[in-house]
Amino acid sequence: LRGLLNRTSVPRDVVDYIVYGTVIQEVKTSNVAREAALGAGFSDKTPAHTVTMACISSNQAMTTGVGLIASGQCDIVVAGGVEFMSDVPIRHSRKMRKAMLSLNRAKTLGQKLSLISRIRPDYFAPELPAVAEFSTSETMGHSADRLAAAFAISRLEQDEYALRSHTLAKKAQDGGLLTDVVPFKVPGKDTVTKDNGIRPSSLEQMSKLKPAFVKPYGTVTAANSSFLTDGASAVLLMSEEKALAMGYKPKAYLRDFVYVSQDPKDQLLLGPTYATPKVLEKAGLTLADIDVFEFHEAFAGQILANLKAMDSDWFAQNYMGRKSKVGAPPLEKFNNWGGSLSLGHPFGATGCRLVITAAHRLKKEGGQYGLVAACAAGGQGHAMIVELYPQ
């Protein structure tokens, strides 16, 4: 948030609303948007709320902001997302929680001693958070492995795509293209000035890694999966008229967007396939009109499965109720500055990174329209059309 204020010089008191996305909530800061806003020095008169929609939480934050502006409720909204993966809340077991709450209500020493005497060693086993579906109890990595198998995507194909992501991210970083990273001083450590998960390797090294989820025959590994990382993002949203009146030149228009959901068991990660044709139709565009594609890379297998599904008439007809396929985005326009596999995936923050990268790529590459898409836990998905502001 402070980085956004420094970059834009927007006065804190003109911001009407702040909305943030996050996934793994800390009880002490359950409305992290409000706490972060106060910490960044925004007016205590500025309302703020937090949304959660798995990996598309900051997408939801942005589109919520768009809705507030479009409905006339607000003129200026700050939207973003945050995830703190290196210190996730770890709970006591349910038995232990129940015992502790009962102990807190006990009035006499006898009652307290009686409750303490009932605590058994297994009560102390912690509940570790897992990236798993509540409805299916399946981890996202297992879903990615099954999806890759269903679409006949080999381990080599996944490793090749992951290597592409890291290679392109390194090239973009070395070329000074990733300009939106705000340096952050980690308490007790050095200042982080750039994404530090970009690690181009070799197919030979990647092939040595063991399957991470479906053992021993799975194809999803640590090398072709997005890694867990801390991160935060922020964007400044306002109407074109308001921006020009305040002396700002917009970067891009958020033209249109859709949210979709489907079966969380077999189609957990196919959100982009379902969302892309819908958002194109809403915006009156075709796949050929899109100059820049920015898709969230949860797993290399997930990306490649979506590309295959989008390019399949059979899948469109049998699963989507469509007469024909939408087509696969051409790789020469696809995630050209790297993606979540190489830049990392702080769950709640990724959506804003996708949108701003799309806007910057449009400017750099001379395009007009960008398409952002992402899958999310629960079998949900999102797609958005970004249009470059006339230069």
UniProtKB/TrEMBL annotation:
<feature type="domain" description="Thiolase N-terminal">
    <location>
        <begin position="2"/>
        <end position="241"/>
    </location>
</feature>
<dbReference type="GO" id="GO:0005783">
    <property type="term" value="C:endoplasmic reticulum"/>
</dbReference>
<dbReference type="InterPro" id="IPR020613">
    <property type="entry name" value="Thiolase_CS"/>
</dbReference>
<keyword id="KW-0999">Mitochondrion inner membrane</keyword>
<comment type="function">
    <text>Mitochondrial trifunctional enzyme catalyzes the last three of the four reactions of the mitochondrial beta-oxidation pathway. The mitochondrial beta-oxidation pathway is the major energy-producing process in tissues and is performed through four consecutive reactions breaking down fatty acids into acetyl-CoA. Among the enzymes involved in this pathway, the trifunctional enzyme exhibits specificity for long-chain fatty acids.</text>
</comment>
<comment type="pathway">
    <text>Lipid metabolism; fatty acid beta-oxidation.</text>
</comment>
<keyword id="KW-0007">Acetylation</keyword>
<feature type="domain" description="Thiolase C-terminal">
    <location>
        <begin position="248"/>
        <end position="387"/>
    </location>
</feature>
<dbReference type="InterPro" id="IPR020616">
    <property type="entry name" value="Thiolase_N"/>
</dbReference>
<comment type="subunit">
    <text>Heterotetramer of 2 alpha/HADHA and 2 beta/HADHB subunits; forms the mitochondrial trifunctional enzyme. Also purified as higher order heterooligomers including a 4 alpha/HADHA and 4 beta/HADHB heterooligomer which physiological significance remains unclear. The mitochondrial trifunctional enzyme interacts with MTLN. Interacts with RSAD2/viperin.</text>
</comment>
<comment type="similarity">
    <text>Belongs to the thiolase-like superfamily. Thiolase family.</text>
</comment>
<dbReference type="Pfam" id="PF00108">
    <property type="entry name" value="Thiolase_N"/>
</dbReference>
<keyword id="KW-1000">Mitochondrion outer membrane</keyword>
<keyword id="KW-0809">Transit peptide</keyword>
<protein>
    <recommendedName>
        <fullName>Trifunctional enzyme subunit beta, mitochondrial</fullName>
        <ecNumber>2.3.1.155</ecNumber>
        <ecNumber>2.3.1.16</ecNumber>
    </recommendedName>
</protein>
<feature type="active site" description="Acyl-thioester intermediate">
    <location>
        <position position="55"/>
    </location>
</feature>
<dbReference type="GO" id="GO:0003988">
    <property type="term" value="F:acetyl-CoA C-acyltransferase activity"/>
</dbReference>
<dbReference type="InterPro" id="IPR002155">
    <property type="entry name" value="Thiolase"/>
</dbReference>
<dbReference type="GO" id="GO:0016507">
    <property type="term" value="C:mitochondrial fatty acid beta-oxidation multienzyme complex"/>
</dbReference>
<dbReference type="GO" id="GO:0005743">
    <property type="term" value="C:mitochondrial inner membrane"/>
</dbReference>
<dbReference type="Pfam" id="PF02803">
    <property type="entry name" value="Thiolase_C"/>
</dbReference>
<keyword id="KW-0472">Membrane</keyword>
<keyword id="KW-0496">Mitochondrion</keyword>
<keyword id="KW-0256">Endoplasmic reticulum</keyword>
<feature type="active site" description="Proton acceptor">
    <location>
        <position position="375"/>
    </location>
</feature>
<keyword id="KW-0443">Lipid metabolism</keyword>
<feature type="active site" description="Proton acceptor">
    <location>
        <position position="345"/>
    </location>
</feature>
<dbReference type="InterPro" id="IPR020617">
    <property type="entry name" value="Thiolase_C"/>
</dbReference>
<dbReference type="GO" id="GO:0005741">
    <property type="term" value="C:mitochondrial outer membrane"/>
</dbReference>
<keyword id="KW-0012">Acyltransferase</keyword>
<dbReference type="GO" id="GO:0050633">
    <property type="term" value="F:acetyl-CoA C-myristoyltransferase activity"/>
</dbReference>
<keyword id="KW-0276">Fatty acid metabolism</keyword>
<keyword id="KW-0808">Transferase</keyword>
<dbReference type="InterPro" id="IPR020615">
    <property type="entry name" value="Thiolase_acyl_enz_int_AS"/>
</dbReference>
<dbReference type="GO" id="GO:0006635">
    <property type="term" value="P:fatty acid beta-oxidation"/>
</dbReference>
<dbReference type="InterPro" id="IPR020610">
    <property type="entry name" value="Thiolase_AS"/>
</dbReference>
<dbReference type="InterPro" id="IPR016039">
    <property type="entry name" value="Thiolase-like"/>
</dbReference>
